[in-house]
Amino acid sequence: MTTALIKNLGRHVGETVTVQGWLYNFRSSGKISFLIVRDGTGLVQGVLVKKEVGDELFALAATLTQESSLKVTGVVREEPRAVGGYELTLTGLEIVSIAEEYPITHKEHGVEFLAERRHLWLRTPKQTAVIRIRSEIEQAFRDFFYQRDFVLADAPVITPAACEGTTTLFEIDYHGDKAFLSQSGQLYNEATAAALGRVYCFGPTFRAEKSKTRRHLMEFWMIEAEMAYFDIDDNMRLQEEMVHYVIQRVLERCRQELKTLERDVAKLEAIKLPFPRISYTDAVELLKKAGEDFSWGDDFGAPHETVIGNNFDAPVFVHRYPTAIKAFYMKPDPNDPNVVLGADLLAPEGYGEIIGGGQRIDDLTLLEQRLAEHKLPSEAFEWYLDLRRYGSVPHSGFGLGIERTVAWLCGLDHIRETIPFPRMLHKLYP
Ligand code: ATP
Ligand code: MN
Questions:
Q1: Nearest ligand atom owner, CA of 239
Q2: How many whole angstroms separate alpha carbon 33 and alpha carbon 46?
Q3: Ligand 1, closest atom to CA 357?
C-alpha cells in the first residue's frame, strides 16, 4: 500500500493510497460521511459511503472526535470543489488514537486563549502556513549565501561581554562568573570574516526588551552577515539582492500558504530592484513634512518608521544616522563625521526596520577612543581590537530579524505568530 502526503495527491489520481494524519472535521448525513483529514501538508476530504463500505466501518468513523489520529485509505479523485482539489473515496479506516474533547473548535477564539494553547494552535491552517513560509524563508537565505560563496560560521550563544549596552541583556551564571546570552553575533562575525572573507551566522539572539510591542520578542532568530572589503554601498547592494531573492522564493514556492493567509501578493510582486535609498537627514525632512514632531538627532520609533516606509512601495534603506545614536563600532562618514556609514532597511506596509547594518570602524586608534567614550571595558574587547592590529580591512555587515521578515511577507499584524513558540514579556508558557 502506498502512503502519500496530502500535498502530493495530484501524483496519485486513480490510485489507492493511505494518508496518515488527524481528523480536522467530520460531518455525516447518515448515509454518507465526510472526513476532513490533515497531515501537516494539507487538508483532504475523505468520502465514506455506507452502502459501499458496510455498516461496521461506517459506524466506526462516527466515533471519531476532532484531532483523533487516523489512517485513511482510498482512491484519489480530482474534485475541484473539495478543499485542496482532490478527494479520497474511502475504502479503509484505521483509528490510531481517539482524542479527548479538543479545546480549539472551529469557532473563533480569542488570541489570549489560543496563545495559552500554542502547542495546539499550531495545528490550524493559518499557523501551519506561517511556519511553512518561515521554513522557506530560512532555506532561501541559506541558499542565497551558499550561491555567493559565503561560509556559515556560527557565533556563540553564551558571551562574556555586552555588544551594545547592558540594559537588555539576559545574565546567566557561568560556573560562578557572569555571562550573557548573545544579543548579536556581529563581533564574532568580524573575526570569522577576517579568517574566511564572507561569512554569516544564523541563530537565536536574546534581548530583555522591557516594553510590549507587536515587533519585539525576547528571543528571536537573526541572520547576520559580515564581508571583508565591503563598503556601505556594497553592503546595501548585497542586502537588497538578498531580500529580493527571498521574496521571489516565497512567491514561487508558497502560493498556497500565502492564499491561506489572504496575503495581498501584488504588493510583494511589485517590489523591484534596486530598493530606494534615503539619508537619515532627508528622512527627518520627510517626517517634518508629514507633521511629525521630530528633531535631527532623535532615534526613529515605530510610528516614524511607518511614516517613512509609507512613502515607498519597496523596502527603503535609511543611511547615515547620527553618530551619537548608533553603536560604538560604526564607521564615521569621512565626508561628515557627525553621521555614520550605517544603513537600516525599513519594510513597507508599516512593518518597520527589518535590517540594521553598516560599515565598521577599521582604525585601531579610533576604535579604542570609541570604546572609552561608550565606557566599555577595553580588556573585554582586546580580542576585538586584535582584528584591527593584524591586517585590518574595510568591512561591513548587517543583521536581519527573521520574525519581522516573516511577519511582513505573511502580512501578519503581530510578531507572536511568526515563530512556533514565541518568548514575550511575561509570557513563557508553553
Ligand atoms: P528596534 O529599534 O526595532 O528595536 P534594533 O535597532 O534594536 O531594532 P538591531 O539591533 O539593529 O535592531 O537588530 C537587527 C534586527 O534584528 C532588527 O532590524 C530586527 O529585524 C531584529 N530585531 C531586533 N530586536 C528584535 C526583537 N526584540 N524581536 C524581534 N526582532 C528583533
Ligand atoms: Mn531594539
A1: 1
A2: 8
A3: 11
The rounded Å distance from CA 100 to ligand 2 centre is 43
Report the alpha-carbon distance of residue 90 to residue 169 in Å, rounded.
56
Structure confidence at residue 401 as a pLDDT band (50, 70, 90): very high
What is the number of the ligand 1 atom nearest to the C-alpha of 300? 2
Q: How many domains does the chain have?
A: 2
Query: Do residues 87 and 124 share a domain?
Result: no
Give the Å distances, CA to CA, from 232 to 227, 318, 357. Answer: 11, 12, 9
- Whether residue 216 is found in the same domain as residue 176: yes
Check pocket membership of 224 for ligand 1, CB cut-off 6 A. Answer: no
**pLDDT one-digit tens code per residue, 160-173:** 865 556 689 999 99
Q: Is residue 404 in contact with ligand 1, taking CB distance under 6 Å?
A: yes
Domain residue limits at 42: 2-97
Q: CA 243, CA 425: separation in Å to the nearest integer?
A: 29
Residue 340 lies in a domain: yes
Establish how many alpha carbons lie within 13 A of residue 296's alpha carbon, considering only the half-sphere containing its beta carbon.
10
Same domain, 148 and 223: yes
Residue 217 Cα: closest atom of ligand 1: 28
51 and 90 share one domain: yes
pLDDT in tens, 305-314: 999 999 999 9
Q: Of the bound ligands, which one is closest to the alpha carbon of residue 300?
A: 1
The domain spanning residue 344 has which CATH number? Answer: 3.30.930.10
pTM above 0.85, yes or no: yes
